Amino acid sequence: MIYDEQPNIESDQISYRFFTHFNRGSDIIPFWFYANTHGLLRPGSKVNSISGIALNTPITSNDSSFDIRLGTTLVNRISDLSNTIHFQQLFGEVQYRFAKLKIGRFYRMNDFDKSIEGLTTGFMVESHNAIPYPRISIETDGFTPIPGTGKHLQLRLHYSDGILESDRFISSPYIHHKSLQLRYDFNRLSIQLGIFHSVMWAGKDKELGQLPRSFKDYLRVVFSRSGNEESNAPYSDQLNRLGNSIGVYEFGFTYHAQNFKLLGYRHLFLEDELSVKLQSPWDGIWGIGIVNEKENRLINSVVYEHLNSIQQESQNNLAQGRANFYNNGIYKDGWTYKGRLMGNPLFTYNPDQREVVNNIMIAHHLGIKGHLTERISYHTMITYSRNYGVCQDQIISGRCSILPGDRVPDDLELRPRSELRKDRISGILRLQFLLLPDQNLYMHSSFAADGGDFWQNRYGFMLGISISG
Question: For residue range 356-365, what is the model confidence (pLDDT) as tens digits?
Fold first, then answer.
């Protein structure tokens, strides 16, 4: 339930959505008010007034071979931290049969299943946490049947290239993404496998100049090959892979019963070469959900997720969190855009330090949405986590980066992980009231709160309205 969402993109007429809401925290706004809102609200703010309009403009008619659309979401934010008028989205889209080309700034659905979108903690590679970066994307329109398989085997592809902001340690780096997902239907049961790969590369270092950006370098990025002496960057031989590369292995299933579907998924986070070889099989996200196929029920969707990022390819009896998820030695701002983590928001990014300061954790998350009445819907989430900072926080003497086969330093001394533990709990309840059905006029209200010793206790509320047509 994101209040700046696009209007009906299936319509062959111009459609719109206007929204406005006011948000206030007791001290600063709680976690689930700003997490996974496409960067709309800034962490650390106390008061926000948001207004905006989203437009979907079809260019072609229904009998055209091509479906051409323009989309935009223009937002005005008045806040105690910063005021802005900006485009959350601004894009053009061309679709021919199952293939779709999109150019600009736009949202993407990355949850395992569309019916649980907005209920999860967020995808590990690219969640809804940061404002979308500008890109060119070629993808299939969802899962597409592969010819000759009787529509049992379906394929989903996505390939894109974009650019990040200039105000970084490495300014204006490129970002490349590709993913391949396969789904096979066995009557009521579907099995789904996928691999996602993203790379932050090129850009300009203030001291050492331009990093690799030739077409030959781009091919190395695409095929995840190492940087070497042929690359044109001054220190490319320091890179394990050309650029800052992350990814996900996906395994999942969906079972369709008579009135509901049961789904489960496993996302293994890939930070370096060791994780590709599954050296930390327990790291990543486990998820399970139940979706009621009938609409307007008390419970329409339930999702539980378990997130574990303790090991990170570290050896037994050594400092944990060796891979240092979302941080990078060269791209020092880490996996961020416009000061917001692009990956799962449970990992904590400190914009003042410009690095992820908490990436070792165990978390449990529950999300539920449904209808209290025909006109009143709700959306609630609660998340509990045990947090242990980063690998370096465990080090009294010695170092974190000990690879398999390395000699363990004689001076290695570690602080027990239990001394670093800080618990946190965050919850939110959103209500949506359909005031005027003919005008699609809704009133929105939310209440959220945080607790635990990871941060101070805080709470906040939101009130707003939206209308679409």
Answer: 999 999 999 9
